[in-house]
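hey m, so remember when u said the tokens were messed up on ur end? i reran from scratch. heres the input so u can diff it against urs
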Amino acid sequence: MRKAGRRGRGRGTGPPRFAQLLLALSLAPRYRDQQLGDLAEEFAARTRESGYQAARRWYWRQVMSSVPPNLRLRIPPSKKNELPRSASMETLFQDLRYGIRALRRSPAFATISIVTLALAIGVNSAIFSLVNVVINADLPMQNPETVALFRATNAKLGVETGPFSFPEYLDFVEQSRSFEAIAGWREDRWILTGGDEPLRVTGYRTTANFLDVWRVATVVGRGFLPGEDVPGAPHVAILSHGFWTRHFAGRRDVIGSTLRLDEEEYEVIGVVSPEMEFANLADVEIWVPMGLDRQNAARDERSMGVTGRLRPALTIEQAQQDIAAIGTALAEEYPAINEGWETRVLAAPDALLNDESRTILLLLALTVGFVLLIACANVANMLLARASSRSREMAVRAALGARRTRVVRQLLTESAVIALVAAAIGLVFSRGLMQSLIWITKGQQDIFLLAELDGHVVVFTLLISLAAPLLFGTLPAIRASAVDLSDTLKEGSQRAGGRRKSLRIRGFLVVAQVSLALMSMVVSGLLVRTVVKQVQLELGFDPAGVLSLQIDVPETKYDSDTKVRQFFQLATARLSGLPAVEAVALVSRRPATSPGPHRQFEIAGRPAAQESDRPTAHTAVATPGFVDLMRIPLLRGRDFVASDRAEAVPVALISLETSRKYWPGQDPLGSRIRISNAAEAAWLEIVGVVGNVRNQSDSESADPQIYLPFAQKPNTNMVVMVRTSGDPASLAAPVRNAVWTIDPNQPIDDVRTMERVQYDASSSGLALITLFAAFALFALCMAAIGIYGVMSYAISQRTSEISIRLALGADASQVQRMVLVQGGRLIAMGTAVGLVGAYFVRQLLSSIVFGISTLDPVTFIGVPAILASVGLLANYIPARRATRIDPMTVLRTE
């Protein structure tokens, strides 16, 4: 009864509440009360005449018929009457024309803003072009995500991307269930004769199915057939597209012709697609079948690369588990050979870069991102300062009827003009930056050569130029459009509250600039310190005055140790007789580039408990006089001598690091070592200890090194070192001619002075120094400019206050201190935030920092000190100017 009574009383009190609410929402505020009141009076009259239900139905009909026109009335005229496309474009062109005129009226502001952004956009485009080489690389194989590359790793030996033996390859082929096909390859070099002069050509020996696994087509001829990769098969060869073009002028009749490689003839059967000339494959000129004998292949001879194509619907992770299980079984079956070795399976796109390269690219991207944000903050600060001078202009536009959104759009259009012009200049700058990096590295780093301003880079730059105005232009545009007509249009009037708010915003931008600049400078400082530390390490030899050249004699022609010895002994004698030549020696690996193969060895009387516990060292073969020629200090014992012939007692030299590590506190002279797993291997007597030689290692201590005499361990591939008192580069031609008098078909490769070798080995580090030092300098300059701009603006807004203080007797030093404290507070806040950010960012460098800690005190103290000093100098200039204000002149003007 109570519910019915309440319902009866409510039924006659007024119109339906939901209908009233719907009508109220659809009405404009100025019509709402009147129309709701009129309908309520009519509703009451109809209720008395026809009853509540009839009046309710009438009311709902009125509401439903009124809502659509009410909503149309609430739409602004600009939305209700959409401008035709031509009118919209005309408005855009008007904004552009006005924006260009506005910038032309402020040439200093426009120039500084454009140059600042152009530098930031340019470095971003340059770094993206490097990343683009990897991300958007056109890999030669079809469906590269289903192609895997195998990597052998051994933590004890320090091997991260090692090769496999032929028996291991066969184990993968026979036991793996994750791949529809697996192929192998091995790098090789040949001497090509029959032309004007002998040429050294590089290539791959592959299994017959290699091109099929990668699904690479030939442009002329055919690929390898099954059975052509077994011993005794006919000699056939496939040419790379570049080699075909250079040496055969792209003639299609090359098929069937003959190449003479290492005195053996090979029939040309095809030309591979030009897509195969990619990354490391760019140097491959000839492809021939592998021809390995599975019956006689050694399991401990690791020289093969392995690749495979996944079965449909299988993933790299599943393939990794499959191959890892095979590797575990091999380690159990062959513990003396496979213990410590593991196999990683990587998708082809992921195998392009190692972890260190990925980290460097990430740091580059992060740093240039900081640079862009700093530049945007700087331009935003200038726009805020400019907005204060345009307040009357904005007020006039508002008084004439311009909507706030229209003003914001106009200001953003001006920002977009700045960004687009900066982007065009930035592309030119990025091109110049990449050319500079190529010049610094002397063309030795492929990634700089491959980087180009292609469509991806242009689109990226365009996106930056469109995003940048939103970053630096939105806040100033909103601030500039928020004007108070009554205050702003009064001559010389400006609200103190608006000034303080604008100053706070600009101060926040300066804090952001300082913090980003500090993080960028810390990252740059750590990397620059790493490279400098590496360059400053002792090489252990003297590269000045030494010419080096590579001679690799073919095993088919020099098929015995005696013939190899005779050739190199005769070559050494001929070269020693050249004018200005002081000494000639041979070594199997160039110092400063490669330490030689990493081998395990055994010390007589100290057998290892396990195979993995055996000592390890890099090995190199050298002739008598090499130590003296390279001026490597002889610390104990003697050098190799002529009497260390093949039939003499086997001897060896060890480096100081080898002695320190494996004979601590002992004299190693007279000790015997054996570099082989075989019991019949010869024991070598240690006859001398020489100084450590730096081989661009990534550790602060040199790697252990063992030298073997060439006469006792002849090698077909040797580096000839020639020392002269004059210019070593001038000996290149005489050295070639001298060798060709011995064998006119012997190529001479990689003729470089050792100073050039040393430079090339460190060129990538020099390029990194250039990049990161430039980024750090840019960030420092932008932060200083930001501090200077904010403090200059603050002083201009407080001119009257400072004048009154001076007129009332304040000392100039007090005014100067007041300004310095205000700017110092911004620097301190930015430094604190930046140090926190740098602490977390530096963890990314843990894998690439060399010789210093990621919390290097020199960097973490020096960088804030430099930034604070430059910031205080930028702060001091406006503070000094504030003390020179003439109070009487200012107060008289007020």
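this time it looks ok to me. Residues 396 and 402 are 9 Å apart (CA to CA). if urs says something different then somethings off w ur setup not the seq
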